[in-house]
Amino acid sequence: MQKQFQTTVLNLLDSPYVLWVVVNVVIWSLALYTVALSIRLLGIVGAPIGTALAGLIVGTGQAWTLRHIVPIEPKRWTTHSVVGAVLGVLPIALLFLWIVLVAVIGVNSVLFILGGLFGGILGATQSRVLYPIVHEQIGWWIGGNVLAGALCAPLSLMGGTFWLPVFCSLGPLTFGLLTAVALRYAMRAWDDELT
Fold this sequence. Notes:
Blueprint: H1 2-13, H2 16-42, H3 46-66, H4 74-93, H5 95-105, H6 107-134, H7 138-157, H8 171-194
């Protein structure tokens, strides 16, 4: 029984989807800190710079991991991730809208909505790289990113203190898990073609 359990754990740890989750926890934590540090050092000008850097961090880490799952062009994935991150943060840049929405529906609801928009825009931009491979199942990737972004934003940004490490929040872990599931479902059709 113990040997079977060890074999199961080793098989699970060897899965490229577990690697996806672990890498996403690390890169999203680093990306969120990069944005926060850029804003702290450069003020409002740091927001687009930090977001572009965050897209670069996330895109590079995801491309490295994704190449273990599907044949992609890593540079294209990284480029699309940077563009998706910058475009995805534009709704957040509308500060007046943010203030009004927070007053009307509360900060957690606003983070949920804006996180979902960010995740959807990022996922839709990245889907341009995955589409030729998994075109019939691409909705899983986009939908998974919408849900992951919607849940990640309030879980990451509503910590009790700014100094609490982001990786201690459930945000990056939630994002990694949900996008791993979405990626697995999107890859199902591609896997069927190979077998």
